[in-house]
Queue: 3 jobs
Job 1
Amino acid sequence: MIITVNIAKIANHMRRFLLLYVFLAIISALPLGYHYAHYFKSHKELVKNAIVCLAIGTLYPSMIQLRAGKIGSELRLKLKETIVTLFIIFVIIPAVAMFLANHIENRVIGIGYVAANAVPASSASVAYVMLAEGNIELATLLVILSIFIALIAAPVYVDLYAKSVHVNLPIVTLAKSVTMALVVPLVLGQVTRYYLVVRKARRMMKDPRVKLDCKNVMIKDSGMGDMSTKNEMIIRCLENRISARLKPILSIWTMTFMLVLIFLLIANKASLLISKPNLVLYILSAQIVVYAIVIISLLVASKALNIRYEDHMAAAFIALTKNQSVAATMTALATGPTAAIPAALIPAIQPAVAILYISASSIIKKALKD
């Protein structure tokens, strides 16, 4: 019990100060990377493989938490909200990113910037939705749909931009890289979830004492009160309890891998970043422009289409919080670590934007007249 509490405290501490830790990872990586620039240049393949492994390691825990089943009913109920969000994620954001990337002098980094805005959110983005009291079911649906759409959309957008700046980047290579970045962690995560959560919940179901604890679970559809449905709801209750116990461990794993990944990405290109601080400032300021356009678009659409506050917040965080580990894996495999620089820099501001939007929840409620 003491160990569990300590792990929960560590996870909570890391979440609260994640922005500070990202900043420290970047600041410490710059001098070390600059000093050992020769090592990074002479071990390019090793660095590339390490980036890919760290990126997949960052993604893996969030894929364990992702509940991929039963999204059909939510899609039917929230079709309007789903279409609006996916349009913003896969049409507006990549178009704006491609325009902004044209002003990045280094074409490879420009490709990385487009990739950083063409990837989907991770299931970790659902945590922001929960904090904002948004629609968790809609957020989960949007995460799952965006992952599968990104398998096609991300390589297509990156290929289009690469061609526009006269960089030869075969779309087959891009498709393989994005499949590696998304499908491998998704499959591993869902298999792990089955053994750690689903199967364990079904075993616990056989224990009358444990089963009794979940007897009071509310069945949403009152017309479905048969025994099989009740058992299914009890199993879901047990799965939620197991997931809650795993969540602090998975959170620490994700944040630790992410910080090490950011450190390595920045250290690998420290000489370039130190020599061109304007590049760093441009990438961060351009990303703030992207966030502003996303927020304005969603607010206008929500107002015009009478989208509720809960659904708006689900859409907002899934659109705003991109999974930069996917972008890092994709670009590192397809073009090399240089293209992954935007994926390393964007996490320095992404949590801050998400937290600020949560802080503005009362203003957003009033704006949507909820």
Note: Residues 2-367 form a domain with the Na+/H+ antiporter like fold fold (CATH 1.20.1530.20).
Job 2
Amino acid sequence: MSRTTIIVLVALGAAVAGFAFSSAAGRLRGADATPDASVAAGPQSADLGWRETFGPAGERLVFTVDWLEVTRRGWRARIGIENESSVAYEVNDPRVTLDRAFGLMLFSTGDAEELEGLNESGELPEPRPATKFSPALPALLEPRASWEGTMSASGALVARSWARVVFGTLVAAGKPPDELPERVVWITDHAYRLRR
């Protein structure tokens, strides 16, 4: 998979303030609509152990997802970011809108080609933004520093959809090395299929 297509430098769609469970179900239905397409995922947990990197050794960002849990009232995930580059990145930038927030994106398949195609056409699904972080996200992630914690939000997720974790937007506080862009939104290569 081409890493340049995973680093999303396009707007991720409309604001998510009005994002509703039913609109996500409609998007996921596609041409193969089934009665189960709008069923909420039931409580479940998954040990994921995902570790993904962007950039060469010495000038890279590392994204981790330890686990994902769906509860009766929402979801939560244990995530981490490590800045192995020579520039600091703003993480909790107040200028960044909710359409580029940390959270989840739901897809109809776990296929990497689907992710690439939707990214290239500017048709990525709206993210389900996290509303709570414990501990709080840092305002600035210094070079060689890391953050690890839990993010969560309320609201149902669509059963049988594929969840990917979104990290973003990270904004370089200064000129980034040639190997890294100024703005980074990371959508995980890995995906987890939500059960009923």
Note: The chain has a mean pLDDT of 82.
Job 3
Amino acid sequence: MAVRIELLHQLDATTATASKSTIVPVATASTEVEPPTTVVSNAELPIPISALPARDVWDNFGPPLPPPMAIAAEPDHYVVLDTLHQGDSIYLSLKRNDLSERQISLLNLALGKVFNANSKSRPNDYYQLIVDTSGVVRQFIYTPHRTPEHPVLIEQIDGRLVGKREKRVLETRQYIAEVYIEDNLTNAIRDAGEGDGLTDRLTENIFGSVIDFRTHPRKGDRIRVLFEKKYLEGRFIRYGSVLVADYAGQIVQQMAFHYTPPGGNGGYYDGEGKSLARMFLLYPLQFRGINSHFNRRRFHPVLKRPVPHLGTDYAASRGEPVHTTAIGTITHAGRKGSYGLLVEVEHPKGYRTRYAHLSKITVKKGQRVAQRQSIGRVGTTGRSTGPHLHYEIIKNGRHINPTSVNRGERGKSLDKKHLAQFRTHRDSLLDQLNAYQQRAALAAQTEN
């Protein structure tokens, strides 16, 4: 899907260009409902988000990163800015910046009371360290790249280092996107200036059980989306909720409304209040493409002879996370012949799924798993020509095509007592989508 995108500054601007595909802001910026425990000002944070360099292409999470390492000297102290890289740790980074073992120990003691560095630190997290001329730590600010609204502040108070976890308020903005398909959804969203995080929400969280984005899309199909984006100091941090999505295609037409019934959990429903959730997800990882399809007569690239391919090979890079497609129990977690590192899950109604050629397994035999729970990482172990995920579904001992597992299934309906409220909520979301559509059409008529 190649697309043309125009960013409009006002939803009700009658001068809007009637381009075929658009993304527009639709609501005044709002903040998180939960109040902050501590709001950190720019003065308290010497590395404000707004001071970081801009980038043309955003990652799925987090603001732009500061330089890998920088040191600034002052008359009575010096400032170190550093970023954790792959395989790094806070300890190794501090040692690299010549902090003494004693100061690292004191800093770690204060840090450990508010932040588990062993399990929570990640590559691309960054920090600012202020050390006086005698080598004593005066301040340490650690910012998780994926959650920069929760920095950790360690500072000297009454002669000892004291730590606390800060909370900054994220700004929420709403946008409407209208995209027409040329080849595939991933390219369309990217060409629109948005990230793969939005694509993943559509293909996994929302339509992941009801639309096969490998076979269903056709050129000219349209998708409209009302979605949220989270900002910190005017910088995009991550995508928020998708409130409504409308896929109008030649093969499939599907609407999805996010709704939370009173006292229940939020989910996506069609226009009649039927859930879009199914027993199985169609994809066991973030969908980017398929290397080899289910085929009982496939010519094997390694064995050089016809060998049935009783699953689907998903294109993926080494290390990408793999998740379960349905709830179940782990029946195998380890090596198994040509599969290499394999996870097998037993599901209700006689189903089993297999996830093969993994580089890492993060579950154990006998463990219960939820739908979309991480179980390992993509690899190329076993009989494999390169990194990918081999995925199988077996029902009552017979392999079936994974892409057809949900065919004919219907979602569970909302309780009747919630339907009236749902319809009101549905109509409000539709009004927002249609209001933009009408204004864009009026603008086009005015220009012509």
Note: The chain has six helices and 23 strands.
